[in-house]
User: What shape does this take?
Amino acid sequence: MGALQITLGVIGVAVSIVAWGVFAAAVVRQVRIIRLGQPDGTRYGPFVPRLKTLIKEFAAHTRMNKFRRVGPWHWLVMWGFLLGSLALFEAYGEIFDPHFAWPIIGHWEPWQLLLELLGIGTVVGGVALAIIRQANHPRRADRQSRFQGSNFAAAYFVEAVVVIEGLGILGVKTFKISSGIEDPALWSSFVTQPLAQLLPSATAAVSIMALIKLLSGMIWLVVVGRNLTMGVAWHRFSAFFNIYFKREDDGGVALGKLKPMMSGGEPLDFEEADPEKDVFGAGQVEDFSWKGWLDFSTCTECGRCQSQCPAWNTGKPLSPKMLITQLRDHAYAKAPYLMAGGKKDMAGDEIGLTGDDPHAGIDVLALAESERALVGDAEANGVIDPDMLWSCTNCGACVEQCPVDIEHVDHIVDMRRYQVMIESNFPTELNALFKNLENKGNPWGQNAKDRMAWAEDLDFEVPVFDGEFGDAEYLFWVGCAGAFEDRAKKTTRAVAELLHMADVKYTVLGPEETCTGDPARRAGNEFVFQMLAQQNVEVLNSVFEDVEPAKRKIVVTCAHCFNTLANEYPDLGGNYEVVHHTQLLNRLVREKRLTPMAPVAQDITYHDPCFLGRHNQVYEAPRELVGAAGANLREMPRHGDRSMCCGAGGARMWMEEQIGKRINVERVDEALGTAPSKIATGCPFCRVMLNDGVTSRQSDGSASEDLEVVDVSQLLLSAVKRGSDKEPVAVGAPEAETGGEAEPDGKADTAGTADAAGDKPGSADDS
Assistant: This one.
């Protein structure tokens, strides 16, 4: 051990003491900050399933690999960071003594191979990620970058450290070989062995490279320790916890049902709730749960959510990524005030800090941050702009794509809940929606007695529940759109006729049916949702009173009703087997109870409804039905779990789009790129929006006048019914009128008089 080694070693140790101290203090502070959120006891267990999910997601990179061009490189960097830590700690000995190696494994050939792979992997992976970031830089005007709004300096710093650490690992190993300290087999050192032949024997170089390897890590610790909002660095630690504590303990993403309204860690009971004490949604950043704060802290700013967001891709102010980072920055800036005991009541008056000088010792910037409204425009100095909040369609693309399981939709709806229920501050169009739901039990404000109008003129009787479920196998939940919206009525009629033809015993509720409450809940009006849902659960439970639980089956045509009945009603005591009509019809085709005989020999593109696809993973049944009908399926570029929203979800069906391009027009433009004869879907909301988009494009000459929007059930009925007549005519011909088919003029969809939503006229980045 010479003077050089001693000097370098002292420098390394001294820097390490400071670095580890800064980092340890930062970890403690970050944990304290995250714990400022509301309690949530639902996240801790069961341990084994959560642990399995964690291991699968990080070891196999199952979610990261959704972006295939990025996944492999990130996988290399991740393992380089985890296992490379062993090489980092080995540097403490190598600085003082170039001959130092870990006991037992230090000279073991497999360990030498692992070091080789770690060094190469981190260098190649780090460089590749930097290139990908450059290739998708927001300065490019011909595309919207998923990195727009991300902190590039922080990202490049992390990637630079990754590369330097990899070079340090390779450098130490190379100089050990050139100096005769190591003599590994070529198979375990296939890069460093040839390089060592070109370098002189220099044991001092081993110590120098070891110091470089060590200092790169220590500088990283200091920088991230002083910047708690550097998510691109902190996710290396917090992502493990964020994945483990994800909402669904079975490993699923936070889609399907919404998180219930929580207060003090317990579901909010409206009958006993006190607005002065209980938390109603999220009106201040401290109203989010600790898991919400962990979400904010874990965001890597990769922008996958942003690249998939329909609002962002059509010029709206909403970026799921920037919404989370704005909440993060606000939370951490306000944290000193909250940790000092600061708290404001609903009127904005201070109730937490007391004394003659209550603000003494609190950072003035934290005090200023505490005055900001969580939701407010620029004039009000709000953290989240209202246009950003209300642009969300709840499509779930952000949640589906997030590699670290951030729960964007739950956080957005929590903020909406506070705005609606406490502030009464929401888009004016929702006033009519809420009023109609409360007074009429449906969004269109129609009378309950008209719920069976869709069945008029059918050549068979539709059974209406009369107090006895009898031998019925299914309750057919028609839904508000299926009962009142003229375009959706055709789907209802088609499904009813197919069930009749297949001899499926079913019944409908008729006037007893009311809205499931989905639009109210997604808009943030939890009170109206609870009112409607409890009423429906009571009715449904009485319908199934004498039916054993395993046979309580409901079939629905609306993807939103499907999601609500299947995923949200169980929390209210409504446990049923709920199937979407495409699933049931597909099963009937497989069982030969429905036999398509006359192929619909046309090119069809299928639009995945968000609440059927992403929220409930029903992708294959509708496509199989399109194929069974004899149509040629042409997929849009964005389909399956990357399908783009139609723009109707999140109660957007009842709100006007006044910013950017209309989402439904964007989706129709994508559909037109497949040159289809028809656009098929499996949701009445999607059907309305896509039809309006087609109408818009037909009016400007971009779409053929013959282009139609149909439900997949109509395609199937065409193939089945015309086959029985031995007349394989195209959907849309006059003969197709019966059973909810196309109109005599050849148009499948025309605007309906009951469409109180108002007719709205009207790319995925894999890098």
Observations:
- DSSP finds 27 helices and ten strands in the chain.
